[in-house]
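Subject: Protein record for review, amino acid sequence with backbone structure tokens
Concerning: The relation between a protein's sequence and the shape of its backbone.
How to read it: Take the token row as a discrete description of the fold.
Enclosed: The protein record, placed directly beneath this head.
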Amino acid sequence: GQAASSLGSDGSGYGLAKALKHSVTCIVPALVQLKVKAHPFAKASGVRTEAKVTALIDGKEAASDTGEVQITAYGISGIPVFQISRFIALGLHQKKRSEVLLDLLPEYSEDEVYRLLVKMGDKRDDLTAKGWLTGIFNQKLVPRILEMAGVRIQTRVSELRKSQLQAVAKKCKRIILPIQDTNGFENAQVCAGGVRTKEVCPRTMESLRTKGVYITGELLDVDGICGGFNLQWAWATGCIAGKASVMRKKK
């Protein structure tokens, strides 16, 4: 395979498969961090926050997941980001507009967020916008959210117009992050893409193009989400191929 080059992977298996008359789909990093273009949260590096992330390819939803997102200096990381990264990586490879929609309060609708913010600011005349959101979000995220909503951090909440309150509520629910790249094969846990599964016998993992050759794990066009599924795929296909090759020799 090609993921995690520090462990010895160099992608040479794909070249070998091609030499043995196999077709190989495009190979992209998967279960990997994403680099954000003009990253609005760069100064909040190290913060972890619950959020829903959605992969948008040319404006269309490709995948989504919810969990703890980690903000980094270059972009975003964390399990939910890993889960959608293969779709972003493929979109980038195909030169399509690849973005992540970040929902910082996925358990609430936009209208519920608006009503919550109004209630929190009610009858608190000296409360600033910064203090208003602190407690809902990490203090490093607050200035960025307000900035994107067009609200100054020292503005009193009592002075905010309804349109500004709505802008903040909307930004809590919808932040578009343009993705410029993944964090590369060297940081990816697995690869997406590989030898087409229709070119391998599913009962033995033997190549249907070259007898006596078995293709397993990372080299096949199969990748799963976080949770040990990719490891299990490697073990299971390796076990099947090993047993099948022994039986073949006995015939």
The longest strand covers residues 60-71. The chain has a mean pLDDT of 95. The chain has three domains: 1-25+187-251, 26-105+176-186, 110-170. Helices lie at 12-19, 79-93, 110-121, 129-133, 142-149, 162-173, 229-250.
